[in-house]
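1st attempt posting a full record on here, be nice pls
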Amino acid sequence: MHNTIKYVCLAVLIAGVMLSLLGVYLCMVKAGIPYQDPTEEMALQWAAYHTAGEYNGKCGVVMILAGIVGMIGTRLWKNKN
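the predicted structure (as tokens):
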């Protein structure tokens, strides 16, 4: 039981890192610096990439924190028993 929970927390941690990296990619590479005088379509595309990148980054950070808390909790529970 202990190993299963440990591996689930590790999987959440790894998925969080991957999601955060995806968020950085979307914000930095796909969205990049906003255009100076964009057309309506270009502005919408930039906003979509930027918003998606921010959302993925925030969700990734939450998953990383959840994975860390889970790993610490699993260790404390193992030491208690």
